Structure formats: structure tokens, C-alpha cells
């Protein structure tokens, strides 16, 4: 009887889990048929499937320019966030004092503060620095927003780092910069890359800060989508959403296959070693 109850409880948990996954995933799948609509507004296809809006996206200078701007800004901001966040995390890790804990806590404030507060603060500050509606201003803003996530992921990697490796490198004559570059950074590379990926995603998806610090010169993809919703419900928005979902799925699956291949090679190597 207890076995039947355990099996029933397991089925209930699995059912609830799959319902939660369906609730989160199924609404995203709606954008694919909407992107193939034959209408000139957001709706499901009425008479036939049409790739007209896909052609509109790939032949539209405005949409392609917005995509490349978002990509370039996201890459630049993530690189800056990885550099600054990694240095901050390594510095706090080396000090290991009360001051470093205060600095680490302050670095988490951008995550806690609402985005509208960031936007207002950047707007007032960027006006004084003459950085409004400039690529440098957007990149700096996104780098500052993404940097706390790099600090978190790098700090987690440093928690598993053996300090004896640093001491051994210094005893062998390596300078502080050489120790950081050749010993610490390779060990924490997964944390750095994870934080950089999060920073890129935040930059690529940001709309609130961009609306406050840009006007006519810079149009990122989220801003272009926002304008498309405000002017008219352009089905090209569904095309952009479907392409982003498909790209994200492809990246995740590629990473999963690469990890599986590495595990398979590691297992073959261990078997041959035995």
C-alpha cells in the first residue's frame, strides 16, 4: 500500500512539474504561428501561411540595424562587465575583510534596485557627462547593470579555488599579474563566462534604461519592438521573437551536445587509461 502511495505521489509531482513547464513554455510557442500570419497585424493565420513578415525583417534596414546595434552593445557591455566584475570579485576574495564584504554587498544593489530607478539615475548622470544618446553611454550603463552578476558567478568560482595554487605561483617567482592571468583566471573561467552570458542577455533585452538614455540616434532591438507596438501591431515583432527563441534553443542544445561529447571523450580516456 505504501508503494502505491509513493508511486501516486511521484506521479502527482511529475504532473505538477509538467503543468508548470507547459504554463511557461506554451505561450512562447504561440509566436511561431503568429509570425506566419497573412495579416498585417498580430493574429493567427487566417487563409494561409505566409513568410512575408520574415522577408520584411531580413530586408528591412531598420530591423537589421536594430539587431546589430543590440548585438554590438551587448557584446561590448558584457566584455566590460566581465573585466570589471572579475577584478572586483578577485580583489574582494584576496582581501577577505569586512571592507570586502561591504563592497560585495554594494555590488548587489543594482540587482535589488528597480530598473526605473537605474534609468532615472543614468539619465541625470549621463546629462552631466554628455553621454545621452551615445553608444558609449549605453554600453557603460549596461556594463554597470551586468557587473553584479559577474561578481556573483566569479565569487562562486573563487569559493572552490585552492589558495595554495596562488601561493605556489608566487613562490615560483610569478608576479601578481602573472598569477592572476595564468593561475586564477583559468580556474574561474566558467564563472566569468557565465556572468558574461548573463550580462549579455540583460543588455540585449533591456528596454527601460535605453528609453531613458537614448532618443533618435540609437535604436536597439527592444526599442524597435517597443516602437512597433506603440505605432501598430507589426507582425514582424512575432518574427523577431520566434528567431530569438529558435536561436536560444539552438545555443542551449549545442552547448548540451558539446558537454555530452566532452563527457564521452573523458569516459573513453579513463577507460583507455585503465
Q: Could you describe the 3D structure shown?
A:
It contains 14 helices and no strands. Helix content is 81%, strand content 0%. The chain has helices spanning 2-29, 31-35, 52-59, 61-95, 98-107, 109-112, 115-129, 135-159, 163-171, 176-187, 189-205, 208-213, 221-231, 236-273. The mean pLDDT is 84. The chain is an all-alpha fold.
Assign an overall shape.
globular
Helix content: over 70%
Number of strands: 0
Query: What series of H and E elements makes up the topology?
Result: HHHHHHHHHHHHHH
Mean pLDDT: 84
Strand content range? under 5%
Task: Give the C-alpha Rg.
Answer: 24 Å
- Main pleated-sheet profile: none
Low-confidence stretches: none
* Cα end-to-end separation: 46 Å
| Secondary-structure class | mainly alpha
Please report the number of helical segments.
Answer: 14
Amino acid at each position: 500500500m505504501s508503494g502505491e502511495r509513493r508511486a501516486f505521489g511521484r506521479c502527482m509531482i511529475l504532473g505538477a512539474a509538467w503543468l508548470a513547464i507547459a504554463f511557461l513554455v506554451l505561450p512562447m510557442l504561440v509566436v511561431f504561428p503568429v509570425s506566419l500570419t497573412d495579416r498585417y497585424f498580430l493574429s493567427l493565420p487566417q487563409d494561409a501561411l505566409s513568410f512575408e513578415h520574415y522577408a520584411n525583417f531580413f530586408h528591412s534596414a531598420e530591423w537589421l540595424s536594430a539587431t546589430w546595434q543590440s548585438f554590438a552593445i551587448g557584446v561590448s557591455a558584457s566584455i566590460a562587465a566581465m573585466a570589471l566584475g572579475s577584478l572586483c570579485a578577485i580583489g574582494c576574495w584576496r582581501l577577505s575583510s569586512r571592507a570586502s564584504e561591504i563592497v560585495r554587498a554594494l555590488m548587489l544593489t543594482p540587482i535589488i534596485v528597480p530598473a526605473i530607478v537605474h534609468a532615472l539615475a543614468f539619465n541625470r548622470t549621463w546629462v552631466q557627462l554628455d553621454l545621452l544618446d551615445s553608444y558609449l553611454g549605453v554600453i557603460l550603463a549596461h556594463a554597470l547593470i551586468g557587473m553584479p552578476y559577474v561578481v556573483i558567478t566569479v565569487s562562486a568560482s573563487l569559493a572552490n579555488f585552492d589558495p595554495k595554487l596562488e601561493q605556489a605561483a608566487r613562490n615560483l617567482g610569478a608576479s601578481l599579474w602573472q598569477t592572476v592571468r595564468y593561475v586564477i583566471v583559468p580556474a574561474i573561467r566558467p564563472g566569468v563566462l557565465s556572468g558574461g552570458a548573463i550580462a549579455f542577455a540583460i543588455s540585449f533585452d533591456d528596454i527601460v534604461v535605453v528609453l531613458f538614455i537614448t532618443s533618435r540616434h540609437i535604436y536597439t532591438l527592444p526599442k524597435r519592438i517597443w516602437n512597433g507596438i506603440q505605432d501598430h501591431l507589426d507582425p514582424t515583432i512575432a518574427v523577431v521573437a520566434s528567431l530569438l527563441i529558435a536561436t536560444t534553443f539552438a545555443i542551449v542544445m549545442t552547448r548540451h551536445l558539446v558537454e555530452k561529447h566532452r563527457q564521452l571523450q573523458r569516459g573513453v580516456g579513463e577507460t583507455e587509461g585503465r
